[in-house]
Amino acid sequence: MQKIVSLNYLLQNQKEDEVAGILEGFICSRNLELQKFINFKAIKYEKSCATRTFLVFLNSTFQGFFSIALNVFQTQNLSRNLIKKLSPFHHPSAQFLPCIIIGQLGKSDKSIIKGADLLDYAMSIAIKINQYAGTKFVLIDSVNKEKVIKFYERHNFKALPTETKDKCVRMIRFF
Question: Which superfamily does CATH assign the domain made up of 2-174 to?
Fold first, then answer.
């Protein structure tokens, strides 16, 4: 049975070094930045309220995680038409827009859950946040790999204009 547990909950109910031990067991050889985040940064970000991280377990085995935060999206280099669509008040000159960001989303090398399930869990929390905070879209900074971009596109995310050589591709999904 899959279970989603907030890192915040774990930190409140277990010793920090025990929680760190769980996180340090996460291995994702396909994306070392994800692994580095969960192994070494997630607790710091959680305690500073920079993000909220959620761990997904299957039969007590740590399978994957995602992190969510509120964000202010800068609209520089976007067309006025796109800014108008993204803006809560349809202002084509808006420079900063509120949004929810899924900052990290990853599964371990040994995971048997699907990435689509992780994304669905993250989106369900984003939708709840949206009901209280009222943003228009979710943002993801995807690695610039065709397979990953196609994955997000299958889940209704659209890539924003970018340079093809950029390390990441910003993608959005409207509520």
Answer: Gcn5-related N-acetyltransferase (GNAT) (3.40.630.30)
